[in-house]
Amino acid sequence: MAVERSAGHAALMNGIYRRQRVIYDATRKYYLLGRDHLIRELDADPDARILEVACGTGRNLELVSRRYPGRPLFGLDISSEMLVSAEAKLKGRAILAEADATDFDPQALFGVETFDRIILSYSISMIPDWQGALRSAASHLAPEGRLHVVDFGDQGGLPGWFGGLLRSWLAKFHVSPREDLPEVLARIAHETGGEVTHTTLYRRYAQYAVLTAASG
Q1: Residue by residue, what is the 3-state secondary structure of 106-137?
Q2: What is the pLDDT of residue 137?
Q3: N or C: which end of the chain has fewer CB within 10 A?
Q4: Nearest-5° Cα angle at 32, 8 to 78
């Protein structure tokens, strides 16, 4: 059943992005706010292994490669269509693989077991089992590694009409803001001995959270 759900979600994402991937970066920069904030906050050591789950077109990994040159970079996405764009953009600067965010084996995909930084950028709002994706990512953190998450917030600091329009528009693309992200990450951290910080950005348009794994 899980395999069927994964295949169905992959087909949905490929259907959405088969044509959109060409214009994705040009259009999303106006409303996927907070991505560059996340990249600045990575604070990755020179030998840090960095994975982006649901890497899409590779836009974030490209910027990570510029800000943190020399770090080993990895990316996975369930959409083979998006990976076409990512491969073209990154030109070998990252190892990429097609995989489900909720169930992936980094050793089989990349030849490594854990990562020092894992990114989920505007992806949990599109992943049906988003809590499973967070748990999967957290399970692949190295000791004291950090999971960085940015996504839509609850729009609480903005006019009510704006939030209503945004949610209606996002629903057309199968996007659902996850307002209980802080509570879900707190549960995962409690179960694994980690710690969580959470903040809102741009009058709660976006939310940014970091889960730091236990020291081992």
Answers
A1: HHHHHCCCCEEEEEEECCCCCCCCHHHHHHHH
A2: 98
A3: N
A4: 25
Q: What is the separation of C-alpha 47 from the centre of its chain, rounded to a whole number of angstroms?
A: 21
Among the listed residues 136, 123, 148, 143, the one whose alpha carbon sits nearest the alpha carbon of residue 50: 148
Partners of residue 121 on adjacent β-strands: 150
Beta-ladder partners of 97: 76
- Work out whether strand 50-53 and strand 95-98 pair parallel, antiparallel, or are unpaired: unpaired
Cite the beta strand spans of the chain per DSSP E. Answer: 50-53, 73-77, 95-98, 115-121, 141-152, 195-201, 206-212
Query: What are the phi and psi torsion angles at 161 (to 5°)?
Result: -65, -35
Mean pLDDT of 134-139: 98
State the Cα–Cα distance between residues 32 and 69, nearest whole angstrom: 24
CA–CA separation, 128 and 180 (whole Å): 14
What is the rounded average pLDDT for all residues in the chain? 90
What pLDDT does 22 receive? 46
In this predicted structure, which of 11-25, 64-78, 137-151, 154-168 has the lowest mean pLDDT? 11-25
User: Hey, what amino acid is at 192?
Assistant: T
β-pairing, 206-212 vs 141-152, is antiparallel
Share in percent of the chain as helix, strand, coil (round to 5) = 40, 20, 35
Neighbours of 4 (CB within 10 A): 8
d(CA 128, CA 130): 6
Q: CA 197, 47, 123 angle in degrees (round to 5)?
A: 45
* Tokens representing residue 50 in the block: 């960095």
